[in-house]
Amino acid sequence: MDILKLLSRSTKQTARTSKDAPSTKLPSAGTSANPQLFHDAVPEARGKKRKRGGDVEQTRAHDEEEESINFFETSSAASKAEKASAPKKTAEEPASTPEKVATKATTELLDEAECRQLLRSHRLKVTLLPSSKPDKVVKKSKKKKAVETSKKEEYKQVYPQPLVAFNDLRSTYGISGRMAENLVQQGYKIPTEVQMGSLPLLLRPKTALGDAIEEAEDSDGEVHVDLLAVAPTGSGKTLAFLIPVVDRIIQRRRTSQDKEHILEAIVVAPTKELATQIVNEARKLSLGTGVKVVGMRKGMQITPRDSPEGEVDDISEDEEEQEEDGSDAEKPKKSSQPAVKADILVSTPGLLFSALSGKNSDQATLLTIRTLVLDEADVLLDPLFRDQTLGIWNSCMNPDLRVTLWSATMGSNIESLTSTTIQARRSLLGLPSSHIIRLVVGLKDSAIPNITHRLIYAATEPGKLIALRQLLHPTAKSADETQSLRPPFLVFTQTIPRAVALHSELLYDIPSEAGGSTRIAVLHAELSDTARSNIMARFRNGDIWVLITTDILSRGVDFRGINGVVNYDVPNSGAAYIHRVGRTGRAGREGGVAVTFYTKEDIPYVKAVANIIAASEKAAGKKESEAGMKRWLLDALPTPSKQEKKKLKMHGVEARRGGLGEKSKDGKGKGKFKAQISTKSGYERKLENNRRGAIQGSKRRMEAEKEEHNGEDSEWGGIDE
Ligand SMILES: Nc1ncnc2c1ncn2[C@@H]1O[C@H](COP(=O)(O)OP(=O)(O)OP(=O)(O)O)[C@@H](O)[C@H]1O
User: Bias category Acidic residues: which stretches (predicted)?
Assistant: First the structure.
């Protein structure tokens, strides 16, 4: 079914020819050939001589595409035999000797020049952050210079082994055959940049880093690594943090007699939707490895290992999958069950923190946790979640604790908070201080270059509504790629009441033959968990075409087929813009569109968005004449003060606070009321208007008739005789 055709049917849109139809360019049109954002080899692009690393990479990437059956296949007969038995395995992996892994490792490593070349050509920058807190920069000029120099010396760029091809995960870094098989099953072929940079570092730090650093060792003899990774939205960070988590558990089991489920890893994510998605990804990845993944639920307890058998229970995988399908609406919840028996726990900070600070809090010191993952770390360490996140972090008392932090945006304040927390924890446990590794992919804090941005001035609130309808119902004249937005797409508003009101407004905008009001939905934090899961499942299935939401869905959530994002209300910060628009153009897909409306009220705040758009267009290689963001507009927009930025981040644009706008004192709805979205649907208002019009019309007619009648009475009619 052509969604756009149906939507534009009432506006007599002319049928697109296959030539001008943009379907092949749509992100929902299929899988991306290459998920890498920066896969152009730099030396070639700049006309320099190519080094050997580039060739290695090209050849391997090509080989991967050729190997349609199994790109994890190694050349040796022994490994072929090993691979052949892999799919049949359903239980845990048989032990693989460390010597075997080590022998393989030596055969695959690149020299430093090749590493540099590859890392650079994929815009990967790896830095060791200072192991101690950098000295305070004092303002006195001479001192400042001296201190800055010493600070500079502490930031050291390193060139670890990049992951050239997915089959190296097995051959060089020794991941389990079963996990490798799971990756094949899911169709992963070429590693994304963040996977290239982080997987060797986290899987086998010694192999990846060589003698680049002399570091503290963990009890398993590996170099201690904490990682802060900043990589674009949709660039595969989930897989980058999950593979090492699952691998570390499998490695521990290989060497230990204890095959029980021990809670070894915690993944924290800011929203329930993201946490559920991570649980699903982790389960797909660890299928058949014996690693168990559980999503945290209300009422669950984090029990210590020696909790009595039989008491231990958790939500079954089936049950959670049902929740994701939205099919468990009528089922009673098992949320009061007492325990978590799993290897990996995924949770929002609030749920886990309250479980830790509950009745059994003294038992809750998480001694067994060896990996803590903070997904969307900048938001988790923002004041909103900071206490909860640090509370969880500080409960993890295992000396081998590895912390990895991930996001597409990371302020320098988050970086220093991370350093301080890691070093403080290590000194509390009497451990030597260690370096934190920072991995940055591309330009830090920027929007992905593979989507089209449109910043549209709509002047007023009603103007935005008209503009949104224009996107939804392209007219014959406007149904080109610059005007229309092909569903499915997401619409973001500033507040919950505004999302609800916009939903009511648009409820009947989709023709009934296309599914009518069922095609449009609203998702926000005040809905029940079941309702939220239900809507997510329907949107993923393609039953919902337009999903109106708040920033609750702006981070991490991966909808593969989204064609566009509409910022109905301007986002509260540059970071919020980057994450919102990053819901489209995932895994390198081209064709995603991000539309942002702004009104008179937004002008003081829109510069951050405009700057990000300009940087993204530059990164995409657009010339000034092709760029949507014009220089004159950038220059004309005012730069908000720090204070204004802070206020905006905390509360949003004032005229829209509280959602529907405040009534003026006389109740007439002027002034602040202009930022209101009607709470009735356009269709309902049209009916009401028609009804009101009909009543007024009939009143007018009656009055006219009356007047006529009176006129007749008063009119001189002569003498009736
Ligand atoms: N190597 C790969 N090849 C192809 N697709 C991939 C690869 N790695 C991940 N993906 C896919 O890319 C999509 C985005 O991945 P993911 O959700 O992990 O992105 P992210 O970097 O966490 O994004 P965000 O910053 O928005 O949280 C997913 O659909 C995932 O399956």
Answer: 309-327
Counting from 1 in the atom list of ligand 1, the atom nearest the Cα of 240 is 18
- Helical packing angle, 529-541 and 317-325, nearest 10°: 70
Type of residue found at 606:
V
Residue 93: how many other CB atoms lie within 10 Å? 19
391-396 average pLDDT score: 94
Q: Which of 641, 620, 666 is nearest to 453 (CA)?
A: 620
Q: Which residues of 216-236 are buried (b: 16+ CB within 10 A; e: fewer)?
A: bebeeebbbbbbbbbbbbbbb
DSSP string, 261-278: ----EEEE-SSHHHHHHH
Residue 287 has pLDDT above 90, yes or no: yes
Distance 558 CA to ligand 1 centre (A): 7
Sheet holding 293-295, edge to edge: 156-158, 124-129, 436-441, 226-230, 402-407, 371-375, 265-268, 344-347, 293-295
Mean pLDDT, residues 609-619: 93
CA pair distance 340, 322, nearest whole angstrom: 19
For residue 232, the CA-to-ligand 1 centroid distance in Å is: 10
What is the whole-number distance in angstroms between the Cα of residue 602 and the centre of ligand 1?
32
Sign of the alpha-carbon torsion through 166, 129, 124, 619 = positive
| Contact predicate 629/620, CB 8 Å | no
So what's the pLDDT on residue 675?
A: 53
pTM: 0.78
Residue found by looking up tokens 């029940």 in the block: 528
C-alpha 439 to ligand 1 mean position (Å): 17
How much is the CA Rg of the chain, to the nearest whole Å? 29
Residue nearest to atom 8 of ligand 1 (CA): 236
Please give the distance, rounded to the nearest whole angstrom, from the Cα atom of residue 536 to the centre of ligand 1.
Answer: 18
Q: CA 380 to CA 388: how far, in whole Å?
A: 8
Counting ligand 1 atoms within 8 A of each CB, the residue from 239, 376, 555, 560 with the most, and so the one to mutate, is 239
CA of 22 to the centre of ligand 1 (A): 24
Do the Cβ atoms of 105 and 173 come closer than 8 Å?
yes
Q: Which residues line ligand 1 (CB under 6 A)?
A: 35, 188, 190-192, 195, 231, 233-239, 408, 556, 558, 560, 582, 586-587
542 Cα to the center of ligand 1, angstroms = 19
pLDDT in tens, 636-681: 898 888 888 888 777 777 777 654 444 444 444 443 434 566 555 5
Task: Specify the ligand 1 atom closest to the Cα of 579.
Answer: 26
Can you read off the two tokens belonging to residue 706?
């009356």
**CA of 300 relative to ligand 1 center, distance in Å:** 29
Domains and CATH numbers, the chain: 116-318+335-441 (3.40.50.300), 451-656 (3.40.50.300)
Reported in sequence order, the residue ranges of 200-357 that DSSP labels E, i.e. its strands, are 226-230, 265-268, 293-295, 344-347
Q: Which amino acid is at 61?
A: A
Mean residue pLDDT of the chain comes to: 77
- Nearest Cα residue to atom 23 of ligand 1: 234
CA separation for the pair 413, 533 (Å, rounded): 34
